[in-house]
Design goal:
Length: 268
């Protein structure tokens, strides 16, 4: 008797495991359930209020957005961006550059583009604390993959999605931050240990030399102006063919998703 009870118990557990396996593995009901990833990927659509606008560098302001009722905001991962519907009706995307653990506010940073199509001018010149905006997101189109090592290369405002990534990577990551001049580069106080490379001090950056800093198999994230991203896509296969290249474009080209992660080999 003393030996039969546990044996029957094990038999029942085995049967239960078989039933679960048949339901969840063989018949895969999970694939019929609503896919939470869809919501996670495309994010939410809500009204947020501008809590503060602060100057961070020449022509760069940060905008802090909060829930009007003070509720915690949806979680996000490094690399995520928001889409803002501005009062004029323009819709513009901005990477989240704060701390993902802070659910009380979203922080974005916006560079004034005097020759753009008015979105950044509207934010710099017309947006005020207390204004309400419809905000879509956070959207995760520039995923922060798990890797043993990272090299982050930020050009100008490309620092915004890379800042939370570099902070999450800690000692596994190195950041090279390129800009026109120190005065134009926001968040210099938040990147201790980064290689700071203003053009007016060091001249035009050499992408091959920068990407050669990555160790083999590292995840290389590049965010910045299109010519810089194109230079990285050409250079990485030559200098570090085992690395993967992860890009986020501020201007989606026709037929190309706004962000892409590609192994460096296809660029050979
Ligand atoms: C996923 C994503 C994240 C973005 N994150 C940021 C951010 O964190 N901070 C920010 O200031 N802007 C960011 N942008 C750009 C932003 O959405 C607007 O394009 C920018 O504010 C200019 O708006 P505009 O109406 O003046 O001109 P637009 O018509 O939107 O842009 C004019 C031209 O400038 C290019 N451009 C826009 N911004 C930049 C830039 N910073 N560097 C180089 N070229 C650029 C555009 O691709 C376009 O060709 C992001 C764009 C995308 C798609």
């Amino acid at each position: 008797m003393g030996t039969q009870v546990p044996a029957r118990g094990f038999q029942m557990i085995g049967t239960a495991v078989d039933v679960c396996r048949s339901i969840f593995v063989a018949h895969r009901p999970a694939s019929l359930l609503p896919h939470s990833k869809v919501l996670w990927h495309s994010g939410f659509n809500r009204r947020l209020v501008v809590a503060a606008i602060r100057r961070k560098a020449v022509d760069v302001v940060t905008v802090i957005l909060v829930d009007p009722d003070g509720d915690p905001l949806p979680a996000w991962l490094p690399g995520a961006h928001l889409e803002l519907s501005l009062p004029s009706g323009r819709r513009r995307q901005y990477s989240l550059c704060g701390d993902p653990r802070d659910r009380s506010a979203y922080r974005i940073a916006v560079r004034l583009m005097p020759h753009g199509n008015g979105g950044s001018i509207e934010i710099h010149e017309s947006l005020r604390s207390g204004d309400a905006l419809r905000v879509h997101g956070p959207r995760h189109t520039f995923p922060f993959i798990d890797a043993e090592e990272y090299l982050f290369v930020a050009g100008g405002m490309g620092i915004t999605p890379l800042l939370p990534m570099a902070q999450a990577a800690g000692r596994r990551g190195n950041l090279v931050y390129i800009g026109r001049s120190r005065e134009s580069m926001p968040f210099l106080d938040r990147v201790p240990g980064a290689v700071i490379r203003p053009d007016d001090e060091f001249g035009t950056p050499d992408m091959e030399e920068i990407l050669a800093r990555a160790n083999p198999h590292a995840a290389v994230y590049v965010c910045g102006p299109t010519p810089m991203q194109e230079a990285a896509a050409r250079a990485l296969p030559r200098v570090n063919p085992t690395c993967t290249l992860h890009l986020e474009r501020y201007s989606p080209t026709r037929g190309t998703p706004p962000s892409e992660a590609v192994p460096s080999r296809p660029f050979h």
